[in-house]
Specification:
mainly alpha; 76% helix; flat
Length: 165
């Protein structure tokens, strides 16, 4: 019952890695053709996805050697699931992602992609990344010496409670 959620989590994580690598291309890389931009994206994201998938695959493959039959079958299915997710991410998802980026570059509508918008400007609200602002402020907060001390003390208190019982 947990296998679909496990596979979904691994697949979504891989998609986030690819999209994040796409969004963090610098200005020089963004001026290239679409195919080259996807090549640069996968140069960065492909390594992370491959390492994650290989380690997960090996962990479940080793787990398949256990003496418990139900755990053996779970690990075998998870091993093949991770293999298929890796193949899916590097082929199917990337192909659809490239089609969507081509649609965006051509100023086409998302729901009716045969409709081309003229003089289209993106919404100003969609151009501001709330996550970037939030993590920037959180990073600034964590850079304060007093906050560092508080975090260390809280960590030690939690560790103490964990060791105690």
């Amino acid at each position: 019952a947990i296998m679909p959620f496990l596979m979904l989590g691994i697949g979504v994580d891989d998609m986030f890695v690819i999209v994040q690598a796409w969004e963090t291309l610098d200005e020089n890389e963004r001026n290239h053709k679409l195919v080259d931009k996807f090549g640069m994206t996968m140069r960065h994201a492909g390594v992370a996805i491959t390492i994650t998938s290989v380690t997960d695959l090996l962990a479940f493959a080793i787990g398949a050697s256990t003496a418990i039959p139900s755990l053996t079958s779970f690990c075998i299915y998870a091993t093949f699931g991770i293999l298929f997710i890796y193949f899916y991410q590097t082929t199917f998802f990337l192909a659809w992602f490239s089609l969507d980026e081509r649609r965006l570059e051509d100023s086409r509508d998302a729901c009716i992609c045969c409709w081309k918008r003229e003089n289209w400007e993106p919404n100003q609200c969609s151009q501001n990344s709330m996550m970037t602002k939030l993590f920037s402020k959180f990073g600034d907060l964590l850079s304060i010496f007093a906050v560092k001390i508080i975090v260390i003390i809280m960590t030690l208190v939690i560790l103490g409670f964990g060791l105690w019982g």
